[in-house]
Amino acid sequence: MAPRVRLVLAIHNHQPVGNFDGVFEAACADSYIPFLDVLQEFPQIPISLHISGSLLEWLVKHRREYVDRVRDLVKRGQIEMIGGPFYEPILACIPRRDRIGQIAAYSRYLRGLFGAPVRGMWVPERVWEQSFTSDIAAAGIEYTILDDFHFKNAGLRDDQLSGYYLTEDEGQLLKLFPGSERLRYTIPFADPQETIAHLRDIADRVPNAVVAFGDDGEKFGTWPGTKAHVYQNGWLRRFFETLVRNADWLQVATMGQVVDQVPPAGKCYIPDSSYREMTEWALPTPRQTELHGLVQRWQGHHEWPQLKQYLRGGFWRNFRVKYPESNEMYARMLDVSRRLEALSCDAEVRQDLLNAARSDLYRGQCNCPYWHGAFGGLYLPHLRNAIYSNLISADNHLEAATERVEPWVEAEVADYNLDARKEVRLAGDRLVAWLAPSRGGHLYELDVRSTRHNLLATLDRRPEPYHDTVRHAASRQHEHHHGAVSIHDLVHFKQPDLDKKLAYDNWPRKSLVDHFLQPGLPLETFQAGQGAVGDFTTGVYETKIRRSEERVEAELTREGQLGPFRVTITKTVALDVRSPSNLEVTYRLDDLPAHVPIHFAVEFNFAGMAAGAPDRYYYDGRGRQLGQLESILSISKSERIGLVDEWLGVDVSLETTDPAEFWTMPVQTVSQSEAGFELVHQSSAVVPHWEFTLPNAGSWSTRLTLSVDTSAAQARILREREALAALS
Fold it and tell me: 606 in a domain, yes or no?
């Protein structure tokens, strides 16, 4: 007898590019392996399984036995492997050529590894735009799963969502399954009978129904409280047992089995959307808070079930507006993709280097650091660093493909960050620097090629809706939750007194940020974002470029206010082949008033050099350690300060021709992650500042040299290569 309802269980396992090995290990131990252990006891229950490429590559290297077990289950038909873009990018965040390229490449990889064709795919974060249909179909995919929220935005009601639909773009067809939001909240948080009751109700109302569940595999053991709930307390085993007991009317099936056995329910064009929570997170903070308030006021109304279908949040691409740091990664990624595409048309270029660049580019498109919601995402420095590391590596491969003779420097001007204004790129064989003349003349990216590290992968502190939760819950921070809690409802503090750490930045935390300050201003006032008496911090600078074979310079000039006075700042940033690891910066202040105390400061921020460890510290001109990189310091006049990250093998120093006092301070965010609210070190701010009075109206100048020493990292790389060679 044909089943009255088919249940699709689509499980999505993912760890982002750049995540710590310990996180991979813990997820394996807590989620992936125990889930497989229980699944193997129930051969009657097939699932559609998606493992992101970044996770699968790690599993192949570190947990080959898990991969072998999955292959066995694929062979016996209990697991259908579904694909997707290789390194889990948001499809709206990458060019069409890379969408098709990533999906096709991952399908080939999965087929080679598991020996079965790949027909379906997982859409990362279910971020959907209708034009993706033709791209997905062009990559050879037949079907995918979104959320029922997508379909409701298209005007379908609950009683129309017990099946799958056809959609189309440019004549290309794709089959879409609506994943049930209700099941996302009952599995695994409610008793299995609640899910069964919901499915039985559908079976009684809808003939030949199909209900799809699609969600993260990490909620089965990795999310807080779920390991004990799902495995130790036996929720998953009880769930599978319940499904088996109801097999007379309920059939568990893969997406492929459903497509082969059940006709589509109709055709539907899906509006641009994602799952409900994601659309809320994409809103600006004030609008997000406003939406939450409206929901709280109206959800008790008798018409709420009908009204909420027409309520939706924002558009995913606006994360790049909400977080300029996301846009910086995106624009950098697009630049690499364009260069790769251009070189791919040249038959003379080495294909091995282009293939290596393409793999690095794809890894640099992994979605997690490009947005922020209930997970750390953008707020996690190691994930942002991983994006830049791969993009810089891709850039290095492309430079190698051009066979340029070292040493070299070049200066280019283009709209690199997609703001309709021109930026400056000063590049050499050691460093690459990006300057934004229209935004304070800031140095907003500084790539160290040898260590594949962007020293300016910083993050500003800004209001988030959950900061109100931090403030309101501060008095209850010692409460503990028992049992499994949905990650969207979790309130937990990883450090005490986080409400006292909330602070917001009044300017971007980049480098070469120019400040005129009140004379005698104390560090604490500057740290609070107060005390400015000029308008140079984010003002527009005019730019001139000077080029020669040995040296390139960008001269940035602005006339602006110093209190009631009009003054001019000219800063010249240079790269020279004779000192390829140095960035030279010369400041000249003109039209300064006589007998008026001047307090001038230049802010630098250094990111990716972690805090809270003894091998990451400041040092002075004599090489003496001054404190770890989260230290708040006020250093008397000196010509040099340095920062060391021994783990990275990077030593950065600032030298000035005119002795300066130095302030240092950490830039730390209070952010939300799957484990609760946490304090995260984003950058170390270093601020040389000078106080002086001129006897006559005139000028003042100084020269700063930013030096990057990576010899320790390069020595370590050589040792590792020698060790590998010896083993082989």
Answer: yes
Three-class secondary structure of residue 705 per DSSP = strand
Of 80, 125, 215, 445, which is the active-site residue?
125
Work out the pLDDT band at 113, boundaries 50, 70, 90: very high
Q: Supply the DSSP string of 305-320, one letter for each residue.
A: HHHGGG-----GGGHH
Average pLDDT (101-117) is 98
Task: Give one DSSP letter per residue of 261-273, joined into a string.
Answer: HS----B--PPSB
Residues 112, 105: Cα–Cα separation, whole Å: 11
Please indicate whether residue 125 is annotated as part of the active site.
yes
pLDDT at 482 over 60: no
Q: Is 54 exposed, middle or buried (0-12, 13-18, 19+ CB in 10 A)?
A: buried
Q: Decide if 361 is inside a domain.
A: no
Q: Is the pLDDT of residue 579 over 80?
A: yes
Q: Residues 377, 319: contact at Cβ < 8 Å?
A: no
CA distances from 265 to 8, 128, 156 (A): 16, 20, 12
Alpha-carbon span 51 to 370, nearest angstrom: 20
Question: Among the listed ranges 78-92, 103-117, 297-311, 459-473, which one has the minimum average pLDDT value?
Answer: 297-311
Host domain of residue 592:
435-728
* Catalytic residue from among 216, 590, 591, 691: 216
Instruction: Please spell the DSSP secondary structure of 483-495, one letter per residue.
Output: S---GGG---BSS
**What CATH number is attached to the domain comprising 700?**
2.70.98.10
Q: How far is CA 122 from CA 164, 226, 375, in A?
A: 15, 23, 19
Closest CA to 593 of 563, 558, 559: 563
Between CA 459 and CA 670 the distance in angstroms is 12
Active site residue 218: no
Give the position of tokens 């790129």.
425
Cα distances (angstroms) measured from residue 13 to each of 61, 89, 566: 17, 14, 59
Task: Answer yes or no: is 568 within a domain.
Answer: yes
